[in-house]
């Protein structure tokens, strides 16, 4: 305590000594209540918000599933280009809306985080293979569809992207516009995620984790009238689990 004697008022110093020796005795100095220090809560680094992927391209990977070449291909498909865009002429930016490994793999999370988002691409990596599958929805995801509804559009598509041993990408556009997608009602959203066509690209999980049970599939009916998209995007109709999946929103560059 001695070093503080030079900077404290004499009366305050005497009171400090008195209090240290006889805490029960009153002091003459005015003692103010202890200060209350508030620490404003800073935003968490894990705050779930969209991230502009092209801002990250120069320094780090923007996706756990797709790369820049895939972005070029997907952008070209959205605009129905007969020739593929070059890397320097991509007219879109991607914003990451959801990543399973970041936000969790529950079907309910998909409906909560994608609700109200339009112009989105879903991409997933199949466990144990090089397959990258996905679908494009130009419309707004709606988690309040009463009773469940088929959604009409002529612009949606499903796909498989070339990757590793997968040498060629497959694009399959909707052919039955009235049944392009199905939006489940809230009672089903704990189990059922996205649904394109007639089970032609869908995600489901009875244990609320897309990585654990094999309830994702790309089915194909034997009768073309039962199929709402042009072609099958997998060589098998076996169900599968996923390693990771992401939802990106397309934003036209200004």
TrEMBL record:
InterPro entries: TLDc_dom. It comes from the Eukaryota. Residues 64-251 form the TLDc domain. This is TLDc domain-containing protein. It comes from Diversispora epigaea. The lineage of its organism: Eukaryota, Fungi, Fungi incertae sedis, Mucoromycota, Glomeromycotina.
């Amino acid at each position: 305590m001695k070093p503080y004697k030079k900077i404290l008022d004499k009366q305050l110093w005497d009171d400090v000594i008195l209090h240290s020796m006889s805490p029960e005795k009153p002091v003459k100095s005015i003692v103010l209540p202890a200060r209350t220090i508030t620490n404003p809560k800073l935003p968490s680094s894990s705050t779930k918000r969209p991230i502009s992927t092209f801002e990250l391209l120069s320094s780090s990977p923007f996706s756990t599933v797709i790369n820049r070449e895939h972005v070029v291909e997907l952008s070209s498909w959205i605009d129905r280009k007969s020739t593929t865009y070059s890397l320097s002429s991509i007219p879109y930016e991607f914003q990451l809306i959801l990543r399973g490994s970041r936000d969790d793999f529950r079907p309910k999370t998909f409906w909560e985080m994608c609700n109200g988002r339009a112009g989105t691409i879903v991409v997933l990596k199949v466990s144990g293979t090089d397959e990258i599958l996905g679908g494009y929805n130009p419309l707004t995801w709606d988690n309040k569809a009463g009773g469940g509804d088929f959604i009409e559009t002529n612009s949606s598509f499903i796909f498989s992207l070339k990757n590793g041993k997968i040498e060629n990408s497959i694009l399959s556009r909707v052919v039955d516009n009235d049944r392009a997608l199905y939006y489940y009602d809230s009672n089903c959203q704990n189990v059922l995620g996205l649904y394109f066509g007639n089970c032609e690209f869908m995600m489901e999980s009875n244990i609320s984790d897309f990585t654990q049970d094999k309830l994702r599939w790309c089915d194909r009916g034997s009768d073309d009238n039962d199929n709402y998209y042009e072609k099958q995007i997998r060589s098998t109709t076996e169900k599968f689990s996923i390693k990771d999946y992401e939802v990106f929103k397309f934003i036209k560059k200004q």
